[in-house]
């Protein structure tokens, strides 16, 4: 991927004839315990990026996940800090497109750092986009306690369903020409990864960064650790067999990689 000559040349040209951009929405900083679970009482801070994908195909522009949005939701203030030089809408503009051009937004699940721009400011930012997620993801969010990040999405998603711009999926499906979702739970119920043909895997929070290419490393917020481990191995193994690029949503640097089995887990080679 050329990063020297402007956003238009940052597009990855796919064999199918489409184009792909890896977009940024800044970094979040949080206590490691919010991601990895018990840190033994140590005060450890970690950071993660938010790298959405923008795909241009026969059906127009499809966006995969949507960052934190304009600001961290009030119930999460103090737990997460977001630092940005460039917001997701600004990153889209740098590709030569406009957020208004986005026809479809696919949400892997309903965590706030994946849905923000899509549902908290949809009318202002993506007024023409249809948004989809799995029905099981919404049902899980409804069961969460008040103040939980996923629960925060529920009233906005329900309003979108009533207004007709939010759709619920029930399992694997081709959502746009060449773009397919595949339910891979573990991090959450109804968590879906996205395949662009057989060329690109968007693994979302199933394998969000390079450290999670080690299948035995389980996030402290995974709802079903064994399912997360099993599904991570299966999808990364398939990506390796296909030679597909894997987009690591939370990886700060070089988020687009090829993977190969190593001595322990999978190893990443930047695209």
Write down the secondary-structure element order. Answer: EEEHEEEEHEHHEHHEEEEEHEEE
* Beta-strand segment tally: 17
Structural class: alpha+beta
Quaternary organisation of the protein chains: single chain
> The CATH topology, please?
Metallo-beta-lactamase, Chain A
CATH superfamily name? Ribonuclease Z/Hydroxyacylglutathione hydrolase-like
Which segments are poorly predicted (pLDDT under 50) over 5 or more consecutive residues?
Answer: 1-7
The profile of the biggest β sheet is:
7 strands, mixed
Question: Mean of residue pLDDT?
Answer: 91
Percent helix = 10-25%
* CATH class identity: Alpha Beta
Which second-level CATH architecture applies? 4-Layer Sandwich
Shape: globular
Strand proportion: 25-35%
| Tally of structural domains | 1
The side-by-side strand order for the widest beta sheet comes to: 1-2-5-6-8-9-10
Count of helical segments? 7
Describe this structure in words.
This protein is an alpha+beta fold. It has helices at 33-36, 88-94, 112-119, 122-125, 135-143, 149-163, 225-242, and strands spanning 12-13, 19-22, 27-31, 45-49, 53-57, 60-64, 80-83, 102-106, 130-134, 166-169, 173-176, 179-183, 192-196, 200-202, 245-247, 256-261, 266-270. The chain has a seven-stranded mixed beta sheet with strand order 1-2-5-6-8-9-10. The protein has a seven-stranded mixed beta sheet with strand order 11-12-13-14-15-16-17. Helix 7 (225-242) links the parallel strand 14 and strand 15 (245-247). The termini are close together.
